[in-house]
């Protein structure tokens, strides 16, 4: 178990190292190679647009073959060929030819790596968060180290950094356990049809479409309806996939409606929400005894000139409790909160909306008749002398 967790931590770390240099410096590297601003915009936007199509397709194929590891190896090989080629090309068209497939492959790997991380953590019984944190850690370290190297030796270090990081990622993915044999190769076509049918069913699911639309609306909209719809969709995602109709009146004991999506994903999703409140950005929302789970959200506010205002935010925290069998959902939204001395001037959701959600839960839970869970009692067994 520990060996798998270490290998997966290395894979997450290598992935973070790629993003740590790519995010701040790849556009600048393209300019250093002589690309004009319109060419840089075209290259980066082409990768973003095409990954919208490619990422779902690669996920469907990986699901159909029951082999996410193999798909990641394939995509990392494309990245290695592309970023490796960038070390020896200067003509803009060749840079386009090498960079766009590599960027598309990189965007397609991320959801596969997260899926593999969650599945392996459940299969081998280790903490997903302790593995995932290495991606964030190496992302920050990659920012700092690649910036230091650029200061010392110039932009020429970025392409080798990306190539070496991708090579390490490829090696780390290869070291992961192979998937369990699920079906003979002859059934691949049948599994592909089943996976496509599941994808079509999900795209027709009202709760999925509502959640997708509400999440999009909440990023750039002040409309309160988006928040109500998002809260409803969140409740339906964690309650086993059953429909809920919001009302101003008290519901009966179980007012859930028809089954919208499969109930199986709800428990792992709740565990991830619980991790946010215990080890992630929502730690200030956790209330002892109530097993709060939730997710922070911070979005910039549109300004008068059509651009987002840098100093204005809408922050939110969507909380459920108790996490193992949710009975209540609390959705806190703050318009343009301000940081304080206690938050070091930071106004993100983890410092504004999350603490407020925790205070609300601590006050209303006893009024709602939800008793706190007693803290576990540790006992020490004495050996007979």
| Architecture per CATH nomenclature, i.e. the level-2 architecture of the largest domain | Up-down Bundle
Largest sheet strand order: 1-2-3
CATH fold title of the largest domain: Growth Hormone, Chain: A
Structural class: mainly alpha
Termini gap: 34 Å
Mean pLDDT: 82
Please indicate the count of domains. Answer: 2
- The topology string of helices and strands comes to HHHHHHHHHHEEEH
- Assembly status: single chain
- Strand tally, please? 3
What profile does the largest beta sheet have?
A: 3 strands, antiparallel
In the CATH scheme, the class of the largest domain would be Mainly Alpha
Q: Name the CATH superfamily assignment of the largest domain.
A: MFS general substrate transporter like domains
User: Count of helical segments?
Assistant: 11
Spans of at least 5 consecutive residues whose pLDDT stays below 50 are none
What is shown here, in short?
This protein is mostly helical and 385 residues long.
């Amino acid at each position: 178990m520990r060996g798998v967790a270490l290998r997966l931590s290395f894979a997450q770390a290598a992935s973070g190292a790629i993003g740590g240099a790519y995010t701040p410096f790849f556009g600048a590297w393209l300019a250093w190679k002589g690309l004009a601003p319109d060419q840089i915009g075209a290259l980066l936007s082409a990768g973003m647009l095409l990954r919208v199509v490619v990422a779902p397709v690669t996920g469907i194929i990986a699901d159909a073959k029951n082999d996410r590891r193999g798909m990641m190896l394939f995509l990392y090989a494309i990245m290695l060929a592309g970023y490796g080629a960038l070390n020896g090309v200067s003509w803009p068209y060749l840079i386009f030819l090498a960079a766009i497939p590599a960027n598309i492959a990189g965007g397609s790997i991320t959801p596969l790596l997260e899926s593999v991380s969650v599945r392996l953590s459940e299969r081998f019984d280790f903490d997903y968060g302790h593995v995932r944190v290495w991606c964030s850690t190496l992302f920050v370290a990659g920012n700092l180290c690649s910036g230091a190297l650029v200061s010392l030796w110039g932009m020429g270090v970025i392409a080798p950094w990306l190539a070496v990081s991708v090579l390490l990622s490829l090696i780390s993915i290869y070291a992961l356990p192979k998937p369990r044999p699920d079906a003979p190769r002859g059934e691949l076509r049948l599994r592909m049809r089943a996976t496509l049918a599941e994808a079509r069913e999900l795209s027709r699911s009202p709760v999925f479409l509502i959640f997708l639309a509400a999440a999009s609306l909440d990023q750039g909209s002040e409309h309160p309806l988006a928040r109500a719809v998002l809260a409803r969709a969140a409740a339906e995602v964690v309650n086993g996939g059953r429909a809920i109709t919001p009302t101003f009146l008290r519901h009966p004991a179980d007012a859930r409606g028809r089954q919208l999506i499969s109930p199986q994903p709800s428990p792992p999703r709740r565990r991830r929400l619980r991790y946010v409140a215990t080890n992630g950005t929502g730690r200030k929302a956790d209330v002892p005894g109530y097993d709060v789970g939730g997710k922070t959200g911070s979005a910039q506010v549109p300004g008068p000139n059509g651009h987002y205002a840098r100093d204005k935010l809408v922050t939110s925290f969507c909380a459920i409790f108790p996490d193992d069998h949710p009975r209540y959902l609390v959705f806190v939204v703050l318009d343009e909160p301000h940081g304080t001395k206690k938050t070091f001037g930071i106004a993100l959701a983890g410092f504004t909306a999350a603490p407020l959600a925790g205070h609300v839960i601590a006050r209303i839970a006893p009024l709602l008749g939800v008793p706190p869970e007693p803290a576990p009692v540790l006992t020490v067994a004495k050996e007979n002398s």
